């Protein structure tokens, strides 16, 4: 059992909140601080069987390490640590209240639409300035805190550039990483006019850049306004592209949902098929849509709030640790288990040997553990 010094865990697994194809999300209590966190749990056996799952883990950890090394942003999820035991790997992060998909189902107010769109834009701009392209932005990957603020999450599909920032108009990748319905036309490429699926096995896209994230924001903005997907079928995207080329794209958007002139300006700007004309942060922050009733734009308000001395995102300044009770069969002592060699059934020993990390800005920033943490090489 870890000592009563500032060591994380053991952890009491409380409840499975969501189950996906490669991972499950659990609420877990850190018994040394009594704080409840979210654990994203992935089976090593699955990772060894599916190359895409392993690649996603590597991408996600690399992206969170880049985040930790850069300036803090309030609107991107931070990772506190990565643990492992002989059969599973655990990503520990803050527990959120819900996600944007759930919020959209309940209805989004005009104030929420303006604020959440601005917060996602700030988060995306921060990611791009760090050299990170999300590539899988969708409502399920945008979490909401108890204070009602967004956190862009799930960086398993992220592209991390070797330079410090991404530049508009530059192409960085061509692998087909996207979710149908939120994919920009340049991602879908020639498959847009095919009768088959959005993506075929082994499909390669034309080269693309950060603009794909801003297109996805446009799709999300529409969903918050209308309560449904704009491009639920590939035929919807094809119809929009054809209308856009005929200079009827704005009218097509208006026909799908009731919206104000300021709303359609932003939506159409984000959904420009032409990459050179597509809105990014520089255009959005000048749009009158983001002005509130007092005439203050949302970006100015959020920047002021982010500088508030009351702001505290990830951990208490001086965490209070205590000895954890022993004997619980549902408690995981992940720190000491990470010290051991992975079991043979978990696959690549050399890969898992190095797969553990703690955020120097996170919940256990003051922990000075030895031999139990490694960076991903």
CATH topology category name of the largest domain: Transferase(Phosphotransferase), domain 1
Number of DSSP strand runs: 14
Major sheet attributes: 7 strands, antiparallel
Low-confidence stretches: 1-6, 309-331, 333-345, 370-377
What is the first-to-last residue Cα distance?
28 Å
Classify the helix fraction into a percent range: 25-40%
Approximately how much beta-strand content do the residues carry?
A: 15-25%
Q: Work out the helix count.
A: 13
Strand order of the largest sheet: 13-1-2-3-5-4-14
Query: What is the H/E string?
Result: EEEHHEEEHHEEEEEHEHHHHHHEHHE
pLDDT averaged residue by residue: 82
Give the overall silhouette.
globular
CATH class of the largest domain equals Mainly Alpha
CATH homologous superfamily of the largest domain - what is it?
Transferase(Phosphotransferase) domain 1
* Count of domain modules: 2
Domain Protein kinase: 11-290
Catalytic activity: L-seryl-[protein] + ATP = O-phospho-L-seryl-[protein] + ADP + H(+); L-threonyl-[protein] + ATP = O-phospho-L-threonyl-[protein] + ADP + H(+)
Protein name: non-specific serine/threonine protein kinase
EC number: 2.7.11.1
Question: What do you see in this structure?
Answer:
By secondary structure, this protein is α+β, with helices and mostly antiparallel strands. It folds into two domains: 11-96 and 311-358, 2-Layer Sandwich (Phosphorylase Kinase, domain 1); 98-306, Orthogonal Bundle (Transferase(Phosphotransferase), domain 1). The protein contains 13 helices and 14 strands. It comes from Lactarius akahatsu. It holds the Pfam family Pkinase. This is non-specific serine/threonine protein kinase. One of its GO terms (biological process) is intracellular signal transduction.
């Amino acid at each position: 059992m870890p000592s009563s010094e500032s060591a994380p865990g053991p952890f009491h697994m409380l409840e499975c909140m969501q189950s996906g194809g490669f991972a499950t999300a659990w609420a877990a209590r850190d018994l040394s601080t009594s704080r409840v966190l979210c654990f994203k749990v992935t089976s090593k056996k699955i990772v060894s069987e599916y190359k895409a799952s392993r690649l996603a883990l590597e991408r996600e950890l690399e992206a969170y390490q880049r985040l930790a090394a850069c300036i803090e942003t309030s609107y991107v999820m931070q990772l506190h640590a990565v643990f492992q035991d002989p059969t599973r790997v655990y990503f520990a992060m803050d527990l959120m209240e819900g996600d944007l998909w759930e919020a959209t189902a309940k209805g989004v107010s005009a104030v929420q639409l303006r604020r959440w769109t601005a917060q996602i834009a700030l988060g995306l701009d921060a990611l791009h300035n760090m050299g990170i392209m999300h590539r899988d932005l969708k409502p399920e990957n945008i979490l909401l805190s108890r204070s009602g603020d967004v956190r862009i999450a799930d960086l398993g599909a992220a592209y991390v550039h070797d330079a410090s920032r991404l530049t508009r108009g530059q192409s960085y990748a061509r692998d087909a990483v996207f979710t149908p319905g939120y994919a920009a036309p340049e991602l879908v490429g020639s498959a847009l006019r095919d009768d088959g699926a959005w993506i075929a096995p082994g499909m390669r896209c034309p080269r693309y850049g950060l603009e794909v994230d801003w297109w996805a924001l446009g799709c999300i903005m529409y969903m918050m306004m209308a309560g449904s997907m704009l491009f639920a079928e590939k035929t919807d995207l094809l119809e929009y592209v054809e209308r856009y080329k005929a200079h009827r794209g704005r009218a097509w958007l208006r026909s799908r949902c009731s919206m104000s002139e300021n709303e359609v300006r932003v939506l159409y700007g984000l959904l420009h098929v032409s990459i050179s004309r597509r809105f990014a942060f520089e255009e959005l922050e000048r749009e009158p849509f983001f002005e509130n009733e007092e005439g203050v734009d949302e970006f100015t308000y959020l920047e002021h709030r982010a500088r508030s001395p009351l702001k505290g995102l990830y951990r208490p300044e001086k965490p209070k640790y205590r000895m954890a009770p022993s004997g619980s069969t549902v408690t995981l002592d992940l720190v000491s288990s990470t010290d051991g060699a992975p079991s043979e059934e978990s696959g690549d020993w050399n890969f898992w040997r190095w797969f553990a990390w703690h955020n120097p800005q996170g919940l256990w920033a003051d922990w000075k553990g030895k031999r139990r943490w490694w960076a991903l090489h």
